[in-house]
Design a protein that fits this description.
about 475 residues; alpha/beta; eight-stranded parallel barrel; two-stranded antiparallel ribbon; 20 helices; binds flavin mononucleotide; binds iron/sulfur cluster
Length: about 475
């Protein structure tokens, strides 16, 4: 996990909680209505993968429990974790690439509606991602995965050798020597594990992404609608396919890369196809990056352009995140895959309490303000969701009153205390369990372990009916709020 070199320690400071009367008058608890997005209050729980789906990507009882617990806190909107749009094996990540997933998603929508007494709008984040392999052992990589090319033969002066002899020569070289022989991508395959990019247009399935993705996203959105979800969030952020199309690093030469207009072309085509399928009155927005926070990556100026175009196209909301890229991810251990939240850009996405002068709270506020105000100047009123270190009422109210955003997103604070918005609304904010931003939850996510919060996962383990993690040591949902 990346830590800023300054290593300044911060303690969350939620400030003064409101009285019930102050909460009633607060902007945070006022409704918002724009096109197809109607929220009872401006509180939002962004997507978080809890690693609870079945191996086949189905909704499980543990998933139902997780969202039921979140919904009891009655946020204005709850976004279901990144859910795959393809019908391909992808481990215990939620999927919706086939109609057989609809009944489980319907149960999920029912559970949330019931637990929130109909006060929470349920959106689902829909995602496409490219293939990434685990980091192999050097022996395996050089014996099996590396394709031998004429350039390898030339550099090794191995003309006339058999392929097996060439592989033996490579295996005898040090990493420094291999650097002279392998291309940058081959070296990455050796040291980090092979990872596809949207620019690998020599591969047919990558070249064809613009032809297949609009229908895949649209079919998934249609299933969300059939399942009774209130809307979809197109995942155009972090390290995944659509964010990679928007990225300044996308230099595809087929009309889908290069200039901003070309980079946004596929995201707009996806949106329009989704709209064709779900109709004009269904909630559709996207999550995208205010900044990629990597060398040569997209900037706030890019994000302003994208935001205006998404608004012009008719999206119902824009949720802004930042960073979370593969390009600067730490080297994984052999046998593990690279994780896009381990580098500096990952830190920008989920900043922890060990930080720099700027601190971990509200690092995305300035870019979000700039993007929102440019969208307003262009004449669009689309609501903008801010997130990143929000854990207190005064801070949340300032987000809304200072023009940073229109809706307040809190991921880790809602994991630490799923009732926190409700406690604030009822004037009982002094009972909120405040997130410490130590990122233990993120560490579990990285290891693909069931995500829990260290503030509550060892509490009341003997409670009747409590479900435990696979290792039997942690509870899977926060204890009930003893009102
Ligand atoms: C365990 C975990 C899983 C996450 N999964 C997702 C995800 O599926 N999609 C997404 O857009 N962001 C995901 N995020 C990022 C959060 O939505 C959020 O942007 C980030 O944690 C910063 O907000 P916060 O400071 O309020 O936590 C995840 C974060 C955590 C801690
Ligand atoms: S484990 Fe809990 S306290 Fe720590 S960062 Fe995650 S949500 Fe916050």
């Amino acid at each position: 996990m990346y830590r800023p070199p300054q290593r300044i320690k911060y303690k969350p400071d939620p400030g003064e909680p409101p009285t019930a009367a102050e909460a009633k008058a607060a902007r945070l608890f006022s409704p918002i209505s724009y096109q197809n997005l109607q929220l009872e209050q401006r509180t939002w729980v962004p997507a978080m993968v809890p690693w609870r789906a079945s191996e086949d990507g189905f909704v499980t009882d543990d998933i139902l429990d997780w969202y039921e617990r979140m919904a009891r806190g009655q946020p204005g909107a709850l976004v279901v974790e990144a859910t795959g749009i393809r019908d391909v094996p992808s481990g215990p990540l939620l999927r919706m690439g086939h109609d057989r997933y609809i009944p489980g998603l319907k149960d999920l929508a029912d559970v949330v509606r019931h637990a929130s007494s109909g006060r929470t709008r349920l959106l689902i984040q829909i995602i496409d991602f490219l293939s990434i392999r685990r980091r192999p052992s050097p022996e395996k990589y050089l014996q099996k995965f590396l394709g031998i090319t004429p350039e390898h033969v030339r550099l090794l002066r191995a003309e006339g050798c058999t392929e097996s002899e060439i592989r033996q020569k490579l295996a005898a070289l040090s990493l420094e020597e291999l650097r002279e022989i392998l291309t940058e991508r081959e070296l990455e395959g050796l040291t980090h594990g092979y990872r596809e990019r949207v620019t690998d247009t020599q591969l047919e399935h990558i070249r064809n992404l613009p032809a297949v993705l609009p229908d895949l996203f649209a079919a998934a959105a249609g299933r969300a609608q059939q399942a009774g979800m209130d809307g979809v969030e197109l995942h155009y952020a972090h390290a995944y396919t659509m964010a990679s199309f928007l990225s300044a690093l996308n230099q595809r030469d087929d009309g889908y890369g290069g200039s901003r207009e070309e980079r946004i072309r596929l995201p707009l085509e996806v949106y329009r196809r989704v709209r064709d399928v779900v109709g004009d009155s269904y909630t559709v927005g996207c999550r995208y990056l205010s900044e990629e926070c990597i060398e040569g990556g997209s900037t706030v100026e890019d994000a302003v352009f994208f935001g205006v175009e998404f608004a012009r196209a008719g999206m119902d909301f824009l949720s802004l995140s930042r960073g979370g890229k593969f390009e600067d991810a730490a080297q994984p251990k052999p046998g593990w895959s690279a994780y896009p939240y381990t580098g500096r850009s990952g830190y920008e996405c989920m900043p922890s309490y060990i930080s720099d002068q700027q601190g971990p709270f509200g690092r995305n506020f300035k870019p979000t303000t700039d993007i929102r105000s440019a969208i307003r100047q262009a004449g669009f009123e689309v609501p903008v969701v801010a997130a990143g270190g929000i854990h207190g009422f005064e801070q949340a109210e300032a987000v809304l009153c200072d023009g940073i955003a229109d809706i307040v997103g809190a991921a880790r604070q809602s994991l630490a205390d799923p009732d926190w918005f409700l406690k604030l609304r009822l004037g009982r904010g002094d009972e909120v369990n405040v997130c410490e931003y130590t990122n233990s939850c993120e560490g579990l996510d990285q290891k693909h372990k069931q995500v829990t919060c260290k503030l509550w996962d060892r509490k009341c383990l003997d409670e009747a009916g409590v479900r435990l993690s696979r290792d039997g040591r942690r509870r899977l949902t926060a204890p009930a709020w003893d009102k």
